[in-house]
Amino acid sequence: MAGVSTYDLTGKRVFVAGHRGMVGSAVVRRLASENCIVLTADRRELDLTREEPTLKWLEANRPEVVVHAAAKVGGIAANNNLPVDFLCDNLALELSVIRASHMVGVQRLLFLGSSCIYPKHAKQPIAESELLTGPLEPTNEWYAIAKIAGLKMCQAFRRQYGDDFISVMPTNLYGRGDNYHPDHSHVPAALIRRFHEAKLAKAPSVAVWGTGTPLREFLNVEDFADACVFLLKNYSSDLPINVGSGDELSIADFAAAVADVVGYEGKLIFDASKPDGTPRKLLDSSRVRELGWAPKTPLSVGLAVAYADFLEMGGRNMRVGVQA
Ligand SMILES: NC(=O)C1=CN([C@@H]2O[C@H](COP(=O)(O)OP(=O)(O)OC[C@H]3O[C@@H](n4cnc5c(N)ncnc54)[C@H](OP(=O)(O)O)[C@@H]3O)[C@@H](O)[C@H]2O)C=CC1
Ligand SMILES: C[C@H]1O[C@H](OP(=O)(O)OP(=O)(O)OC[C@H]2O[C@@H](n3cnc4c(=O)[nH]c(N)nc43)[C@H](O)[C@@H]2O)[C@@H](O)[C@@H](O)C1=O
């Protein structure tokens, strides 16, 4: 099929940008079983939105491969409330990391987009060809525009210079190292934290945002990291490639599954004053499946691991992915 391409990671210097984040840390864990050299940079010493220091760092550290997992990330409320941060920070990160990678001659770069780049009412399941066929979901259009620009940058550098830069579009992710900010997290981390606190407080009911009817597809982050490494080794094309689990459920059913894992037995109240966002977002992941990759982690298992990780951190993981 189109895009099949073998790349050997053995002995390669691989820079994981955003290595402290949920995806970046999972990619670092996954790369430990490849015979490569993993490079990371401390954000306090290197702000990747700044191109000159980023270029200097890349020149000094000479990566052959870059996984661009650094981004301004958050759930529906953060996306809706912080349009400048989501648009400008993500554009700045992309311009800096992608252009500097070109300038130092990086052999293969993997850029992370998101399923929210596709139109709000895209045909389901969403094939890569749905890109730019209709209006975006308003709650996350700023972030989506930045992500579309990132994938276009990868295409442009490939077209003009022949750079081997690929773009991967993940569905909604969850798992170890997630951001448990009470308002700015995605739904898995938000509900794990809220249900855990409600269980401890013996609260009779707890709020779930929106109507509970939107459909979402969830993929465990360890599976996603495995897909990233698989695609680095097996895929080269200007076409973005979707990575999903195929496991779609309503937010109401997802909330019930999280409550089950956390052991919260009270009532779930749907707060329709909060936004639902996209009504349905199921990726067509047939291209990555045809290449030979498939997810392994059932949702109930992945959620149990995520909850254990939350508890291990003392239930205190208030790492703020997005500044309030
Ligand atoms: N989580 C999800 O459900 C999905 C995620 N994605 C994409 O996957 C990628 C990773 O997301 P995820 O791991 O969840 O997000 P996280 O917020 O967990 O991690 C993002 C990382 O980027 C780093 N970062 C942000 N800004 C800068 C900067 N200016 N300089 C250096 N580092 C910076 C953060 O550093 P620090 O730790 O210091 O804050 C953090 O380590 C993103 O591109 C995101 O858009 C796509 C679809 C779904
Ligand atoms: C991955 C993707 O994630 C974002 O889009 P989203 O899929 O809408 O993300 P979400 O996880 O925040 O919400 C999913 C659904 O869940 C409902 N929901 C219920 N209760 C809570 C809750 O407590 N918190 C949150 N955040 N949502 C809740 C919520 O109302 C919505 O219907 C993009 O902005 C963008 O960041 C992106 O790329």
Describe this structure in words.
- The chain has 324 residues and is of the alpha/beta class.
- The protein has a domain at 13-178 and 218-246 and 281-297: Rossmann fold.
- Helices cover 40% and strands 15% of the residues.
- The strands form 3 sheets. The chain has a 6-stranded parallel beta sheet, with helices on both faces. Strands 6, 8, 10 and 12 form a 4-stranded mixed beta sheet that branches.
- Strand 1 (13-17), helix 1 and strand 2 form a beta-alpha-beta unit.
- Helix 1 (22-31) crosses helix 7 (221-234), helix 6 crosses helix 8 (251-262) and helix 8 crosses helix 10.
- The radius of gyration is 19 Å and the shape is globular.
- 48% of the residues are buried.
- Residues 320-324 have low confidence and may be disordered.
Brief overview:
With 324 residues, the chain is of the alpha/beta class. It has helices at residues 22-31, 51-61, 76-81, 83-103, 141-161, 187-200, 221-234, 251-262, 286-291, 299-312, and strands spanning 13-17, 37-39, 65-68, 108-112, 165-170, 172-174, 205-209, 215-220, 241-243, 248-250, 267-271, 280-281. It has a six-stranded parallel β-sheet, sandwiched between helices.
